[in-house]
Amino acid sequence: MNKVFSLGFFIALFVIANASALTNDQECAEDIFDISARYLNLKNFTYKSKNGVVIAAACKASPTNPNLILSVFAYDSAIKDEKNLLVAIIDEKRNQIVSSYKSVMNQDFSTQFSENSFKLDTGRYQLSDKVRAFGVRFDNAAISSCGEEGGQNDNLTLFVQEGKKLRAVFDMYMYWYRLIEGIRCNPNSEAIMENAYLTGAVQRNSTNGFADLLLTAKIDRNRVEHHLLRYDGKSYQTGSQKPWWLGY
Question: Residues near 3 by Cβ (< 8 Å), separated by ≥ 6?
Answer without folding.
Answer: 205, 206
